[in-house]
Design a protein that fits this description.
Elements: H1 4-13, E1 20-21, E2 24-25, H2 26-39, H3 44-52, H4 71-78, H5 80-91, H6 99-102, E3 108-110, E4 117-119, H7 122-139, H8 145-155, H9 164-200
Helix pairs in contact: 2-3, 2-7, 3-5, 4-5, 8-9
Length: 201
């Protein structure tokens, strides 16, 4: 595996600092996800997967600064375990994740590219869920309130699987930040209504 500074240099070399993602650059988002995972005490393979998680593109992010035929290169940089998570993140149909919470048997993901089922182990499943939580949480402050509320709804079924520190952070964010934003949004709508009524008089 490669030092983090060299990984950042690689991501810069493929243009991650110029690609737009969640109103910022892709590189900013990737580093933010890695930072959350590190702060939550996650393993090195998961943290490095966080730094690279979108480089092949994903179900929702259609940029792919690294072609899928460069998997060997990415594997050399971050190790096979990290790269496997990045690839799983690339192919996973995340809307199917919730089935693992209720259906019996080993965890699995659905490959969005060919529709086939991929069986994964418990460690990979937990890592994918933690990565999903970090990925969405990192973007929330940069999304409008309706999008943030949808994200909260998507994440809630998975929060019990999150590390304790992540659960605490998200609970505080949901209660404080989203509560204030909803209140502010309601006041803005109220003021717009008053302004329209005033113009009619």
């Amino acid at each position: 595996m490669t030092d983090n500074a060299d990984l950042i240099d690689y991501l810069t070399s493929i243009g991650a600092d110029e690609i737009t993602h969640s109103r910022r650059t892709l590189l900013t988002h990737l580093r933010g996800v890695q930072g959350l995972l590190e702060d939550w005490g996650m393993t090195m393979p998961l943290c490095q997967a966080g730094l690279f998680h979108s480089v092949y593109g994903t179900e929702y992010f259609h940029g792919n600064p690294v072609a899928i035929d460069q998997r060997d290169r990415v594997r050399d940089l971050i190790g096979s375990d990290s790269e496997q998570l990045v690839w799983l993140w690339h192919v996973s149909k995340r809307s199917e994740f919730r089935k693992n919470l209720t259906e019996p048997g080993p965890p699995k993901v659905v490959n969005r590219l060919d529709g086939k089922t991929i069986c994964i182990d418990d460690r990979q499943w937990t890592d994918l869920v933690t990565l999903m939580i970090a990925d969405l949480y990192e973007q929330m402050p940069h999304r409008h309130i309706a999008s943030q509320l949808r994200t909260r709804h998507r994440l809630r079924p998975f929060l019990a699987m999150a590390p304790t520190k992540a659960q605490q952070e998200l609970s505080r964010y949901f209660e404080r930040e989203l509560g204030m934003r909803r209140l502010f949004g309601n006041w803005r709508r109220h003021l717009r209504t008053l302004a329209r009524e005033w113009r009619k008089t």
